[in-house]
Amino acid sequence: MCPPEPADYQALVQALKYCVLVHDAETKEIVWANRAACELLEFTVDELKPLKAPDMSGNARQYRREIGVAWLQRAVDHGESATEWCYRSKRGDEVLTEAIAIRVNLSSRPIVMVQFRDIAEEKATQRDLFRTEGRLQAFLRNLDEGIVVLDDDRTVIFASESAAKLLDTDVAELRGADFGQYCDAASYAELNEVVARTLTGSPPQDSRYRLAAPGGAPRWYAGTCQYIEIESDLRGHLLLFHDISERVRAEEEHRRDTQHLNHLARYNAMGDMAMAVAHEVSQPLAAAFNFVEGARGRLDSAPGAGASVGWGLDNAKRQIGRASRILKSLRQYVVRLEQSEQLIDLNTIVADCLYFIELRAAQHSVVLTMDLADEPLPVRCENVLIGQVVMNLAFNAIDEMSRWPEDRRRVELVTRRSADDHAELTVLDHGQGLSAIPGGQIFEGVFTSKENGNAIGLALSHRIITRHRGRISANENEPQGAVFSFALPFGSGA
Which CATH number fits domain 127-243: 3.40.30.10, 3.30.450.20, 1.10.150.130, 1.20.120.790? Predict the structure, then answer.
């Protein structure tokens, strides 16, 4: 195939999308321009030939004529020279270009051929990218959430500045490091399990980790892991994590508070039981002692008085049996203290507490009225804790009524299914009421009307009921007295 004819080369240059200007190497005057240059600058070749730099260059100082001539002269001296040059079109529009000047030794004379292209849009895009990158870097530096990308070997292939800050290290040390060295043993095992579950297309996996730089104090972090694949540039397990040490600390404190609550409730229950037992057991034991002493005296004075001795010993046996039943009831109650949450009828809980409530009522000559619902009221609860609330409310009502004349000493216990389908217990007294109690302080453990009270009973009752997803309230009992009640949601299957 024959090469193009010399005349064809001009057609080839005219077809270029690159703009071409040809300058005389000595005078720097324009001697020719291709079609692309004419279209961009909006001049014909004949119009371009007489133009100087001030006529077709930007107005900024860096585009002055002497600078343009020096740029072209460097190409003459060294063969080529590149720069960014701002041309000005016939209409006055400035066009930023990427330009390269090349010396070409033609047979007639040396010339400088300038090739250039419009880069205004590229520059604008580049500025936008730099601006966006700067903003992203600022955001990443100030994020509360750390970002790392791990490969299959748990090596960090990307880390944000916020991640380095959270782990008390720097980005350079974090990138390329084994992320396992920042985890404790349990957290590293958890991370491996989470990574194994995060495959392409799988949903993000949430977990908790204890992380710290080697030798640093570990803190708790909540993390979300998912697999990412950004073209061929970034591929791995994206881990987003943020510090939740304060939340974990609060949860631990809440757990300790709950344990303390259980301890206080059991301690309070045992205190009430101990007082009841001390009061009740002392009477039959004293009576049994007297009967036995009487029988011994009869035996000493009248060896033949067998019937009288038998009567005394029989009564002693009955009194000691009564004491045994009291202790057995206490023992059963204490055994239940360690039971976990279970489904039980609220009426059964009240019945379990009734023996001790009746003892307190009898001690203060208070008439106790029971009105239990005919239907079962099953609730899911720790029955001993709910029983403690029942006794707290009942004991408070009985103690309140003990200060009033005997003909007014009445306390009522009622169980019902509430209007919103809860199991409800209500304790009513006819004493002073709530008027003397500062508003909002009934269940705060800071107020008591008892002479020797410590007010912890109502505060404990409130915490026990709310922990069981229930509610507890106190209201006036018209025309006189107070009404304390609590309601618990029905257990599953109710």
Answer: 3.30.450.20
* CA nearest to 57, candidates 78, 36, 71: 71
Write out pLDDT tens, residues 282-307. 667 667 767 776 766 666 666 665 66
Q: Are 85 and 95 in contact (CB under 8 A)?
A: no
320: which strand partners? none
Q: Is residue 179 within 8 Å of residue 159, measured between CB atoms?
A: no
CA-nearest of 139, 128, 137, 51 to 89 is 51
Q: Are 280 and 324 in contact (CB under 8 A)?
A: no
Give CA–CA dist 318/128, Å, rounded: 98
Strand partners, 230: 234
Q: What is the pLDDT of residues 71-94, one digit of tens each?
A: 999 999 999 999 999 999 999 999
- Domain covering 340-494, topology: Heat Shock Protein 90 (3.30.565)
Please provide the distance, in angstroms rounded to a whole number, between the alpha carbons at the two ends of the chain.
97
Q: How far apart are CA 132 and CA 159, in angstroms?
A: 18
Which pTM was predicted?
A: 0.40
Parse the chain into domains and list their residue ranges: 6-118, 127-243, 247-338, 340-494
